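Recap from last week: sequence in, structure out.
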Amino acid sequence: MASTDILIFAEDPSAANYAALLLPGFAARGWTARLYASAVACGWLHSRGVAFTEIAAGADANHLLREIDPRCVLTGTAENPETLGLRLIDAARAAGIPSVAFIDALMSAAYRFRGTTSDPLAHRPDRLLVPDSKTHEAFVSLGYPQEFIAVCGHPQYDRTRALASEWHNEGGPAAFRRRLFPELAPGRKILTFISEGALRYELLPRRTMGEYGFSGRGLDKGRTKIILEEVLDAVAVLAVRPYVVFRVHPIEKAEDYAEYCAEIDSF
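Predicted structure tokens:
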């Protein structure tokens, strides 16, 4: 196979979203890039028509590097501590290939490169791309050399600005609302609850109910459901109840929240 400029890997939806938005920029510069994905990222990329190659989570990183022969390895991070992304970073280092990881947000900095160890930088790449100064500070505090961190925003920021302009030209928020919820009366409020993906926190230390500060309806079901219960109970007593929309995280299914169906108008 011909040499490739950039081998990209994504396993989680957030990483897939980031990677997909980079591809047009690479192509515009004449760089060849091959996107590989596993697990939940595959469904996300399929649903958006992004070209990629599905690869098993347990694939041999060294074999993939030999096959693709990239000039650079670019990978997102994943909730999975045994993700292929970390093995690619290690294999790239051993092969003398530069490795870069892109970080989508501040949270979980200490878990992104630790794998199954207790060292938060056990599988650190040669360079980091981070969205903002707070994320930069988080990795510096963990011991990552600040001169190898680039604060470069997030391609989704550019996509959001482009969409805002597009929707403004199509009639603004009112037209957007009519397209999504044509059955709603113009004056009725819409409340959208966006799940953070409760399943992802099973690998992280759990706070006690007392530390968390919210109790929901009294049963510890994980923080997404606790806050959802707080919100549903609050809107239930309003004089005019808003239309409640629940946005399921890509790693979840609407059925995971079936117990709230009677209180949520749209999933």
